[in-house]
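hey m, so remember when u said the tokens were messed up on ur end? i reran from scratch. heres the input so u can diff it against urs
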Amino acid sequence: MTRVWRWNRPVTVREVLEDLRGDRAIAYTTVMTVMDNLHQKGWLRRRQEGRAYRYEAVSTRAAYSAALMNEAWASSDNAAAALVEFFSRMTPEQLDALRDALRVVQLDEVRVQAPEKAPGNAPGEGR
């Protein structure tokens, strides 16, 4: 998935294979099997191009990471304790990113809960 996300475009098994071979020896069939498994699980979509398939990520890396975190949290028998443990292992930079994300979520909630009032819709106006 990392290779597919990095390129951010549809890729072939051969392209991923050649990129991976820069790091280690790996067989074409291994890469093909992994990519097919990811397709079957819904993480990659593919379209046929000639005799080969081009694969692309169904979701972003951020969405994938969020799904993994949610899955781990949901499987915990004590969600609060799991969160405390998770947060206690964060770096200062990660904690800053968490604070920023919470501010964004809180702003979105405020917008949903208190939409701007249209003129004439204030209590006591009109009628």
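this time it looks ok to me. Residues 77-115 form one domain. if urs says something different then somethings off w ur setup not the seq
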